[in-house]
Amino acid sequence: MAIARQVLCVCAFLSLPHAGAEPIRYSVAEEAESGSLVGKLAEDAGLTPAQLSARRARLVSDDGRQHFRLDRASGRLVVAGRLDREELCGQAASCMLPFELLLAEPLQFFRVEVALEDINDHSPLFPEERVRFDIPERSDPGSRFPLEGLGTSILAATASRHTASLLRMSISVSPMGLGVETKVS
Q1: Which Pfam families does the UniProt entry name for this protein (predicted)?
Q2: Fold of the domain built from segment(s) 2-117
Q3: 1, 39, 63, 82 — which has fewest CB within 10 A?
């Protein structure tokens, strides 16, 4: 029982520097190339690159996977390999990759969180390459002419990856030509 109490006290003691400390936060686009800069981790932790080397800095994640690499010489945090948001977080609204920056002598650690930003890499599908329709000459200004099937296909393709989004297309006529406006909400 005494050993369990000692282990508990050591764990509580080691957690003190971490308690209440705000994590260092970054964001990176999914599928960023290996070696892409995420942030200046040494600087943001209030350390120098020399301290990172002297204190044998390393990154430790809960799941044991190394998504990022620390360049001890420069203090930069970089992408270690391809990051696929859907693979790592599924359809979750946000995708956070947490880990610790661990330093030795004296023992110190910083919580780091990297938000993996979604890129729109899923193009909408169109039923036809071109859609033709006629606008009568006697049409009133402000008249609307639906593009049958087009909006449904775009909405379906968009909704398959982003369930909370809505895509609207509007076409406006001016003396200078035809304008197309697309809004995602």
Answers
A1: Cadherin_2
A2: Immunoglobulin-like (2.60.40)
A3: 1
